[in-house]
Amino acid sequence: MLIDFNKQKNRSDLAPWPPIEELEETRVVSGAPKHFSRLDVSEYVSGHMLGIWECVEGVVEWIELGDELHGIISLSLRITEKNGTPTVFSVGKVVFTQKGEQVRGEVLLRVRKKHSQQRRQTIKSSTFHT
């Protein structure tokens, strides 16, 4: 399967995902972010997902449940690492996050990214480290 995500960056067939505040290992810090997605590959047994994800303005903290490669295809996102270092990712930038990593994402404008995630085991820490 060959998927050209750059050609698909303006597609409108993304579906709403469950509210962010209901997701495992996630908390909304500010704003009212809502997210949408389309999965092109989703394998329950292997835990691999590949698709497009979009989120509207807000600040969210989460603990990665799997290794994930993010490629920004529309607008921008500021990610702050646990050590406090902020980085703004705009169109064309790619970032990798590891399973168990605590991340703070600030959606500056509606952001759209392609993502590929591999989950191995679910994390059950339920505690954010400050």
Structure, described:
The strands form two sheets. A six-stranded antiparallel β-sheet has the order 1-3-4-11-6-9, with no helix packed on it. It has a five-stranded antiparallel β-sheet with strand order 2-5-10-7-8, with no helix packed on it. The chain is globular. It is mainly beta and 130 residues long. It has one domain (20-118): Jelly Rolls, CATH 2.60.120.10. It has strands spanning 15-16, 26-31, 35-43, 48-55, 58-63, 67-74, 77-80, 86-89, 94-97, 102-107, 111-118. It is built from no helices and eleven strands. The chain starts with 14 loop residues before the first strand and ends in a 12-residue tail after the last strand.
Strand content: over 45%
Q: Can you tell me the overall shape?
A: globular
User: How would you name the oligomeric state of the polypeptide chains in this document?
Assistant: single chain
N-to-C SSE string, H for helix and E for strand: EEEEEEEEEEE
Ranges with pLDDT <50 over ≥5 residues? 122-130
* Major sheet size, sense and barrel closure: 6 strands, antiparallel
- Computed CA radius of gyration, to the nearest angstrom: 14 Å
* CATH topology name: Jelly Rolls
Name of the top-level CATH class: Mainly Beta
Helix content: under 10%
Count of discrete alpha- or pi-helical segments spanning 4 or more residues: 0
- Count of individual domains: 1
Spatial separation of the terminal alpha carbons: 42 Å
Q: Describe the strand arrangement of the main beta sheet, using strand numbers.
A: 1-3-4-11-6-9
- CATH homologous superfamily, by name? Jelly Rolls
Number of strands: 11
* Mean pLDDT value: 80
